[in-house]
Amino acid sequence: MKKSSFPVYLAGDLVFRPNALALFERLKGLCAEEGLEGIAPFDGQADARALPPGRETILAFVRADRTLMDDCAGALICIDPFRRSADMDPGTAVEIGYLLGIGKPMEGYTTDGRSYHEKVGSYWRDAWNGSLSLRPSCDAPSSGAEEDPDGMLVHSDGLMQNGMIEGFIGFSGGTVAVDNNFEIAFHHAARRLARRLQERSLA
Length: 203
Description:
Elements (H helix, E strand, L loop, with lengths): L5 E6 L8 H14 L2 E4 L6 H4 L5 H17 L2 E5 L11 H12 L4 E5 L5 H13 L4 E2 L11 E2 L5 E2 L8 H9 L4 E3 L3 H21 L1
Parallel strand pairs: 1-2, 1-3, 3-4, 4-8
Antiparallel strand pairs: 5-6, 6-7
Helix pairs in contact: 4-6
């Protein structure tokens, strides 16, 4: 096993999943194989977890996670759809923007390689028995050709999530690994991030 040397933030909806602590332990093991030290959001929240549920506790979590991101060398981002919707966890989306802003390299991963357009169509069909339709021509710039039953543009054609998500990961030098197996997708992303961090350390 390679010696862990680069701390990397493990972002995504993982904190909300069943058996989250066990999941993070598995991912930390995969990180260690690549010379990374996986840092879970929980790792900075010991003091906040002792507080009663409520607004101040949540904000303590947020501050703790920001500190972890500040201190990490990079981040591995899960962009899986969240709560059966087409879109990923919104908190993680905020973290992607923050990480790019402070200059951290990122790699993404997902088990759902469908296009964002397909995900939106499936959501409307399965949840509301609705369907997408061609959007009437309008004078606004467009990143898609269809709209949902609410008249909202189905944007980001050719991407798996909102263009800001994949765009910001790409601006940091990263890509999104896709595999039906969650741990395989994660491992691909971890390997790429480890290589980039190693190259950066030697530059």
